[in-house]
Design goal:
525 residues; alpha/beta; Isoleucyl-tRNA Synthetase, Domain 1; four-stranded antiparallel sheet; 15 strands; 48% helix; elongated; binds ligand ME8
Amino acid sequence: MTEETAKEKFYITTAIPYMNAKLHLGQVYEFILADVTARFNKLQGKDTCFLTGSDEHGQKIYKSAASKGVSPQEYVDGMVVDMKRILKLYNISNDLFVRTTDASHEKVVQGILTKLKENDDLYKGSYEGWYCVIDENFLTDAQLAEGKCPQCGREVEKIKEDNYFFKLSSYQDKLIKHIEANPDFIIPESRKNEVLGLLKQGLKDISISRTTVTWGIPIPFDPEHFSYVWVDALINYISALGYSLDNDALFKKYWPADQQHIGKDILKFHAVIWPAILMSIGVELQKHLVVHGWIMKGEEKLSKSKGITLDPDEMAESYGVDAVRYFFTREITFGLDGSFTGQAMFKRYNGDLSNDFGNLVSRSVAMIDKYRSGIVPVKPANLKGGKDFEKLWEDIKAAAINLFYNFSYSEYLVKIWDFINIANKYIEDSKPWELAKSAGDVETQKLDGVLYNLAESIRLATLFVFPFMPSTCQRIFGQLGIDKNIEEMSFEADGKWGAFTGGTTVGKREILFPRIEENTKDKEG
Ligand code: ME8
């Protein structure tokens, strides 16, 4: 077997955002979580494929385009350019990008609709009820909250149409069985219980076509009907891999998805409708649905109309992309809602980043500069420098990796920061400035050991923080004089204490996290 084929595969996806508005930080938060996970798995030596894309059909997009006086296609073409710009800005390392207006995607959707019909899972019926354009969701009287959409709180439209229905109800028992047999199919457990509760209440068949919304994919066997935007969008996860197309090599290699990341508002679509479609067409279900909570600004939900926004460009401008990536993964317990406040950011930034991590790097590099003319001492034969770093690191590493696999991103970072602070304390305890005063052999050797231990601690912490703050971590490697691309490294080969031989020349010193001023205006939000 070649090395390539021996690698374990890892396929990860995010929801594909609607292209009706500029991306906000809630959507970017999802990309960050998926990106951290993809980068982590790459460092674990897995053959990783990371997909994201854009949801471009439906009434909401059609209306947005009309309000701007452009065609829907022109409109989404422009929005996608901006989405890709933000992905790049945030260093999102997706391997694939799918657009629901791609001809190949449309072909796959039409093939699947035909297959659903051939399997006797579609029938024509009449739909009369409510429709929420914002969530692109059909709603019954009982589901409305004071006459409005229970999800977004907006006005709903009454619609009456002849539609195709998908026999979702016939999958109820199979779905319950699958979820019960695979307890970690939906993560976290609270979301799994929510889905089981929903399934046990009973499922109704769902309308999957519209005749009044023409900005969509025509139903191949009845072209007056257009695919319901959610059915179209869900299929992206396999159309992007070439499912049912001539070249389906990626589908064969990567499906089923190892992790599908979504927000809690779209749980039913991904935990019920998507698996039922896959069951109907005879395709294996995704392995894990990973459901994150809601990003808020202070106590409030993000809302453009109320002016409560977290703009990814403004956030990047104020704090730097890596600090934003760090903040949202460290501050929020995965699965729970979390909020951004200027004050919380101020504390994390100046505390964790400037004081703990930034200072460790700058003090250590300054001492290597001053006491050893910028050359990192080579690895000493006896690595012990007052503390058994090797054991400490190996224990922290094992615990951290375990936390990561349990989706405890924040706790993972806490572990790595424990190590960073052990190294900070080691500077105080070993007092390199005292050792440097003496020219004796013992002190010289001791100082070499201390400086090596510091450089090695920084290297290892940086390697393990890399998935969260890729660009800063690459710069820290530059500070240590290591010019290798971290993306090409692995935890296995490079994550061991002592894997660094030393002897490198430190780079030009730079302030990694210039301290920020407390924004007193922004204390609450
Ligand atoms: O739902 N906090 O698109 P979308 C956290 N097109 N996550 C948030 C959020 C917030 N404030 N707001 C949105 C759609 N999200 C569909 C998806 S997938 C086949 C089709 C998350 O632009 C949301 O939960 O409304 C979803 O996972 C993603 O951002 C895109 O949301």
